[in-house]
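Protein modeling request. Please complete all fields; requests missing the sequence field cannot be processed.
Requester role: graduate student
Desired output: 3D structure, token encoding
Chains: 1
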Amino acid sequence: MKEQTLSSLLFNQVQAHPDADAIIHGDTRVSYAELWRQISCLAVLLEQRGITPGSRVVLLMDNSIRYVVAYYALLRLAAVVVPLNTGLKGAQLSEVMGHAEATLLLHDGLLHDGKTRELDTGVSGLQLNVGDAELLDGGVDPRRSLPGDQTLSDRSLATIIYTSGTTGKPKGIMLSAGNLLANCLAIIDYLDLQSRDRLMCVLPFYYAYGNSVLHTHLAAGATLILENSLMYPQRVLQRMAAEQVTGFAGVPSTFRLLLLRCDLSRIPLPNLRYITQAGGPLAPSDIERLVKCWPQARFFVMYGQTEATARLTYLPPDRLRDKAGTVGIPINGVRIKIMDEQGAERARGDTGEICAAGPNTMLGYWRDSEASKARFFDEWLRTGDLGYQDEEGFITIVGRASDMIKTGDHRVAPEEIEEIIADLPGVEEVAVVGIPDSLLGQVVKAYVVLAAGSVLDTRQILRHCSLQCAPYKIPKAIDFLATLPKTASGKIQRYQLLKSPTPTGKMYQEDNL
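Delivered output (513 residues):
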């Protein structure tokens, strides 16, 4: 097997700890040896079905053992993994599959609301249910060499991660095998991950943060305990205690939920040694409360983006107090510069766009060379975030050049929701922004200008959205305006909308639709 790929790192752990638990999901536990056997069986089956190096294959599954098996089976074939949010609607799935030029859809038979049936008209016969146990019961030699074991190079396209399920123009971020490997090794290094670690995973694997959690812990020989819902956070904490969890990863809304709904002092977690937080800023006061509840755990504030595979910087826990408010320093192999609009480096302390270079920066956007070119100054990835570095190189983010909405562990492009609402008869103009939310960080808010004579109301707009997009994309507040603020050229100024009171009307929940 070719050295230093995600598959080779996993195989090293299979040889070193064959009987150790790799993944625990509900009452099911799978060892490293059994996980590798299932991966090998599925890889051979997919090869027989015509999957070859470079084939794009969609994964449409929630976190599960089957998801991991499918992902690594595709890596071993040097195929391209296209993981998609299971909340996407059928039409959106068809569109993204078409954009990715996918040759196969893998699911586990647990999808609801007829998503796969809706796809039949466009990709009939191109589905495989990996939830069928017999698929993974074949007598395959787990040591058998497969295409990805030998042919993957650092520049080989390994995965396409879509920034959001969109009904407009999908944007697929191309990450290479080298991107995934570099980010994986750097994260293992600063977290000091060991085979004895046991992480409670509540983050979806189909996003960059969850994807990095998956690969780093398997590469380190650790155990992943999967929990796909935080509906009952107390039960999750109890499970963490029972499983003697050593690690926990979350986005700001994860930790706000725990702090709001749980008395953390009532469930001791003596084995917890590291906590990681990314996906947007968490209030320093919340971090203080978490550190006070779990003083034995090292708390890592982190920053990154999908275009950089996952991680760009981390704040060393021993600097958590004196560098509060920063996102830390670059991870191993990454260089950071603060640049002006022409790509010239700014002085320390001066604000500009945060730009990064390193082995983890993306290959570009799938089938979009113009957008790919616009995201780079030569080798430097333009993050779209504004910030500055202090004299020690610690980075502070002061705002977003991008309008992307971060709600919980999801990312929402405002243009997508605007297109959906604008399609409703009676809507003249619409603008969508993210507004602050104490639990989710941000939620979606829409500002609507109605056409003359229109009698549309909020309920009709919300119901229309509920039929077109996932629940987290549905506006939680809607304001009706006479006009939208615009530039002289007619471009909507979203930042002007954010200056208005938030919100002027009632907040809406999905169960009120």
